[in-house]
Amino acid sequence: MSFEASSDFDTKNVRIRTAQPGDMDALLRFEQGVIRTERPMDPTIKEGQLHYYDLNAMIASPDIELVVAELSFPEPSFPEPSSAERSSAERSSAERCPTLIGSGYARINPSRHYLKHSTHAYIGFMYVEPACRGKGVNQLIIAALKAWALSRNLTELRLDVYCTNSNAIRAYEKAGFTQYLLNMRMGI
Ligand SMILES: CC(C)(COP(=O)(O)OP(=O)(O)OC[C@H]1O[C@@H](n2cnc3c(N)ncnc32)[C@H](O)[C@@H]1OP(=O)(O)O)[C@@H](O)C(=O)NCCC(=O)NCCS
Predict the structure, then answer these.
(1) What is the pLDDT of residues 63-74, one digit of tens each?
(2) 126 lines ligand 1 (CB under 6 A)
(3) pLDDT tens, 95-135?
């Protein structure tokens, strides 16, 4: 099931919260969305159905903060509907139910022994529903993960991104990341 954002989409209506087991359907859908994006960027990814993450373990881990972006629609300010209007009002009420539109996680990782910091927060599983992209949802997700990292006394954020994933690179730079290390490969 894909999500269609209405034209009045506003990030003010987006809340970032810790993921729960009940979010699994959306998380699995987001995971396949990330894989679909990255497959053409990496000839070494296996063919066929696959998963990147053990999502249940991530939700349960005290060293991982897995978050979802939840879109809620504001309550209307008009009076109670008449019974004739109720069916459409019920429909719009259903439409106001929170909808999950994105994900991300931060994990406490050990850092290389020669660095100033002994641990850092590694960020991944960044996904925003296509209809909601380009509106800063990813920045809200990163801000929430940054706050979590600081609450765990981590002062360094790291992530990996394919060098051809220009939308993601742009999103991370907008959130404050800078390009740092170039990872190279060669099939032999
Ligand atoms: C990467 C991703 C999470 C960014 O989320 P986002 O909420 O769209 O991020 P932003 O709103 O900050 O937009 C980032 C950039 O995406 C591009 N963008 C804008 N509208 C877009 C759209 N409708 N569709 C795709 N990309 C768009 C723009 O380059 C934008 O930068 P700009 O605002 O300076 O023009 C999202 O594009 C996504 O889910 N991509 C597929 C999965 C993926 O690549 N994940 C990252 C793995 S490392």
Answers:
(1) 999 999 999 986
(2) yes
(3) 456 799 999 999 999 999 999 999 999 999 999 999 999 99
For the chain, give the mean pLDDT: 90
Distance between CA atoms of 18 and 65, rounded to whole angstroms?
A: 7
Q: Is 127 in the pocket of ligand 1 (CB under 6 A)?
A: yes
Pairing between β-strand 119-128 and β-strand 157-159 as defined by DSSP bridges: parallel
> What pLDDT score does 8 carry?
72
The alpha carbon of 99 and the centre of ligand 1 are apart by a number of angstroms equal to 19
Rounded to the nearest 10°, the torsion over CA 23, 166, 112, 65 is: -20
Residue 103 Cα to ligand 1 middle (Å):
13
CB 165 near ligand 1, within 6 Å? yes
**Span from the CA of 63 to the centroid of ligand 1 (angstroms):** 27
Tokens 């970032």 correspond to: 16
11-174 maps to which CATH number? 3.40.630.30
pTM: 0.89
168 close to ligand 1 (CB < 6 Angstrom): yes
- pLDDT the model gives residue 75: 59
φ/ψ (deg, to 5) at 181? -135, 135
**What Å distances lie between residue 12 and 18, 69, 73, 169, 171, CA to CA?**
18, 12, 10, 24, 18
